[in-house]
Amino acid sequence: MSVTAAAGFTAAGVTSGLKSAGRDLALVVNVGPLRHAAAVFTSNRVAAAPVLWSRQAISDGRADAVVLNSGGANACTGPEGFADTHHTAERVAEALDLSAQDVLVCSTGLIGERLDMGALLPGVDAAVAALADDDDAASSAADAIRTTDSVSKTAQAAGAGFVVGGMAKGAGMLAPGMATMLSVITTDAVISQQDLDSALREAVRVSFDRADSDGCMSTNDTVIAMASGAHPQAQESEVDLHEFQAALTEVCRDLAAQLIADAEGAAHEIAITTVNAASEEDAETAGRSVARSNLFKTAIFGQDPNWGRILSAVGTTDVAFDPATIDVAVNGVWICRGGGIGEDRAGVDLTGRTVQVTIDLKSGDSEATILTNDLTHDYVHENSAYST
Question: What SS3 state is found at 147?
């Protein structure tokens, strides 16, 4: 269930010494015959060196390999940090007989420190030597990109003549666009680069861009999709794009949900669905206003179904709704009706980990779901001591 699920890919995850313990360097290689690629990067204006490099490298729509390290973000490191990224791509290219311009680079970890290239570059050589197309190799790669993640994140879907597999990391600084996250998605579909790019952007829009844990946007966010065209039943004609879009979106949504489930310190996973909105944009805006309310998030942590905090958050937006008609449900109990008191809030059970909030704006027929989590003591503790 990861990046080697699709035919035409090898992977590896090794220990290079960038972290105090565990795997910290991953490599995913597309062995073809197609080498189409697409990517979506952070919209943060403070972009890390690997983002700057990979934006340039993928501009021609091709990528033969992706090298990813944890143990350091290589962000805000100036020209020297960019040179480190360049040297990393060159080392991969030399070992695999590729062009460095066809090697994408991703990094994750603490911002503002140079990477230990004396550890990283030999790690590249070790990863190349360990490349394989089996489940163990894919699992090792997914493990190597973890930082504060407690578990690896992988997903898989399939359709007629193709498989889509993916891995991701992320547990904090999760907010569009996209989140503090890295993801590599592979497919053996026969698909054009233009269609792959369009499909990835749509999938990200309704998945990773709707995972909003703490409202903090990272400098390193990257989602990469690569297509090999190597499926055993691949035909000369391209895959059905509707079916492919559905499978790719399924994988991205699965990974996004896993990011929220593993959010730093979280005790509850919260899905906020806004229905009957005037537009999809309105539905997103309303849901995100609640997802970013610390008052709401702490209430859920305390198992308090305080619907007033939901209404007050929605009221700060410019979305179309009448405050006198809005309804709100928490875990199926409509505790707010017509902008006022609804069913007894004592009927809401928040002892479980999963929370479903429904906001009915009664302004149209559009909807959207934002994924978030509660705000806990553990989150504050973990992030107060992250760099020390």
Answer: coil
State the Cα–Cα distance between residues 182 and 211, nearest whole angstrom: 13
Distance CA(55)–CA(15), nearest Å, equals: 27
Return phi, psi of residue 42, to 5°. Answer: -55, 145
Taking the model in full, what pTM does it have?
0.88
Single out the catalytic residue among 180, 249, 285, 358.
180
Within 8 A by CB and 6+ apart from 41, the residues are 47, 51, 54, 55, 221, 222
Q: For this structure, is 316 an active site residue?
A: no
Strand 354-360, strand 269-277: pairing: parallel
Half-sphere exposure of 127 toward its Cβ, with a 13 Å CA cutoff? 36
* Mean per-residue pLDDT over the chain, rounded: 93
Q: Report phi then psi at 183, rounded to 5.
A: -150, 135
pLDDT at residue number 212: 83
Q: What is the pLDDT of residues 2-45, one digit of tens each?
A: 999 999 999 999 999 999 999 999 999 999 999 999 999 988 88
